[in-house]
Amino acid sequence: MADLREQRVCIKFCFELGKTAAETHQMLKQDFGENSLGQTQTYKWYKRFKNGRTLTDDDDRSERPSTGTTPENVAKVRDLILQDRRLTILDLCSTLGLSYGTCQRILSEELNMRRIAAKFVPRLLQNEQKQHRLEVCRELQQELQEDLNFLSKVVTGDESWVYGYDLESKQQSSQWKSPFSHRPKKAIQVCSSERRQFMS
Question: Which InterPro entries match (predicted)?
């Protein structure tokens, strides 16, 4: 497109010659053709020069200051998320009285967080359970090294536990994660407090 500033200079020149806005627009169309300013823009700049404007450059654009994204609000959102990473944006809005867009902007831009669903794993073991399994495996390995017929002496049994499961959706298990924190884990089946044992 032709230089817009050049067309504004032409509009200013036409105004000073006493041309009307309509005449100015027609002259721009004749000179610049398809690249000329539209009627609305031509009339707007003509009115500016008529009101005393002398510059033909664009006005400096000042972005609207954000009143919600303050250091205090950022700290409040951070504290709430660290207390409970499963809070939703709507929860934050109702607790802090901030708009949805403000909370979303604080989480994504200020805290650099995003909501991630928990990774499914077969079981979630405590450190004591992991250590116990390791010790049992080492003992069995030691027994096998000392007695090659060890496996023939093993008597196996079976038991089945039937649990009641508290189902949780993927959305319910998701939580906020920073770039440096680990992805949360979730057992494929999370047992409730109810269970029954069957022996065989």
Answer: Mos1_HTH (IPR041426), RNaseH_sf (IPR036397), Transposase-MT_Hybrid (IPR052709)
**Alpha carbon distances (Å) from 3 to 44, 109, 134, 156, 180:** 17, 36, 76, 88, 48
Mean pLDDT per block of 10 residues along the chain (200 residues) reads 74 91 90 82 89 77 60 91 88 89 87 78 74 87 84 70 58 72 63 49
User: Smallest Cα–Cα separation from 140: which of 151, 152, 129?
Assistant: 151
Q: Where are the domains of the chain?
A: 4-50, 71-112, 120-147+160-199
For the 71-112 domain, the top CATH level (class) is: mainly alpha
Alpha carbon 199 to its chain's center: 49
pLDDT at 200: 47
Q: Is domain 4-50 given the CATH code 1.10.10.1450 in the classification?
A: yes
Strands 175-177 and 114-116: antiparallel
